[in-house]
Design goal:
Layout (H helix, E strand, L loop, with lengths): L2 H7 L3 H13 L4 H8 L7 E7 L5 H14 L4 E7 L25 E7 L11 H11 L3 E5 L10 H4 L2 E6 L5 H4 L11 E4 L7 H22 L7 H4 L21 E4 L8 H17 L1 H31 L1 H11 L5 H14 L16
Length: 358
């Protein structure tokens, strides 16, 4: 086993931080570390926290840490901040609101920059989460950057997705549109002491109800959107109760994170989703689909890296040819794929045997 992986499994904080840095930077033998750690992952509950900028995600995340620590759970946090298009750096300021937990040895907080990645996450976030899973986290909170309606990467890697909204921020209009609000397993209407909180809750309830009608009418009661999952609301478990078979119905909680109000009730609703996810056949199918999507992303990234490395000058020549309009980009792409295959890197229709390579 890689020495650094061994230290991560021994829950050494500095070694874990170093492993996260190598994985985030994708330098050195980071892949060997991930391969050694992978058999020791799969135990943590990955909880995604997303929503519009200014909704209070960081403050609410801080409160969630306190609740989980009060339950005796080890908690890891991955806070993703946007990268500056001018300097390439990031402020990484979300963790400032979590200072109360910095001295807790059972809380590990890691900030990541998006580095130009879209979808509210960074390219390395899945691998960093696996490092923290192997470190021994019972819960890994992944806080995305402030995202818009179509940045839904968090749903592809988190077990449970919490969408944080706030009254007076346009959410009343957003609630009737497709996008970020459709990815929620649980909604938190934060800053619920403000005017408009009741209206925000009603709009979210209306979105879920209308979505259920659309899904039932179309016969497409499948997928992860609130619209599809509401089609069989009678199958959803009630928080704290035994999970019942059927799609999960998104639920809504009101919170005032700055005053720690409603956070315990929110955790109960999150636990209800976790019970459904790990206690029903529908939840098992959902987890398998999430792994399938994650594998597709991993394969896409691996193939892209391999193709760029293998093609080298041919790729640059294709770019020049497209710029000169001597070939169209579609034909150029087909030619590059053919060249990649002919180099022996991949064969048409080839399959990978279990345990055989990448």
């Amino acid at each position: 086993m890689h020495p650094l992986a061994d230290k991560v499994l021994a829950r050494e904080t500095r070694a874990t931080a170093r492993a996260c840095r190598l994985v985030d930077d994708r330098v050195g033998d980071y892949a060997a570390i991930l391969k050694d750690l992978f058999p020791h992952t799969g135990r943590a509950w990955i909880l995604g926290v997303t929503g519009n900028p200014g909704a209070g995600k960081s403050t609410l995340t801080d409160r969630l840490i306190s609740v989980f620590r009060g339950q005796g759970r080890r908690v890891a946090v991955v806070a993703v901040d946007p990268t500056s298009p001018f300097t390439g750096g990031a402020i990484l300021g979300d963790r400032i609101r979590m200072q109360a937990h910095f001295s807790d040895p059972d809380v590990f907080i890691r900030s990541l920059a998006t580095r130009g990645a879209l979808g509210g996450l960074s390219r390395s976030v899945v691998d960093v989460v696996r490092v923290l899973d192997a470190w021994g986290a019972d819960v890994v909170l992944v806080e995305t950057v402030g995202v818009g309606q179509d940045e839904l990467e968090i749903t592809r890697m988190a077990h449970t997705t919490l969408v944080v909204a706030a009254p007076g921020m346009g959410d009343e209009v957003q609630a009737i549109k497709a996008g970020i609000l459709e990815c929620a397993d649980v909604f938190a209407v934060n800053k619920a002491d403000r005017d408009g909180a009741d209206a925000a809750v009603r709009d979210l309830e209306l979105m879920i109800a209308l979505g259920g009608e659309v899904a039932a009418a179309s016969g497409r009661a499948r997928g992860h959107s609130a619209a599809a999952l509401h089609a069989r609301a009678q199958g959803a478990p009630s928080p704290g109760g035994e999970p019942v078979e059927g799609p999960w119905e998104p639920v809504i909680a009101r919170t005032v994170a700055t005053r720690n109000e409603g956070v315990a009730a929110l955790v109960d609703k999150l636990e209800g989703h976790r019970a459904w996810l790990f206690g029903t056949e529908a939840g098992a199918a959902r987890r398998e689909e999430r792994l399938r999507e994650a594998m597709h992303v991993q394969l896409r990234d691996a193939l892209t890296d391999a193709a760029v490395a293998a093609l080298g000058p041919a790729l640059e020549a294709a770019v020049h040819a497209v710029a000169q309009r001597t070939v169209d980009p579609y034909t150029a792409s087909e030619q590059l794929v053919a060249a990649f295959r002919s180099a022996g890197a991949i064969a048409p229709g080839a399959a990978v045997a279990p345990g055989g390579g990448t």
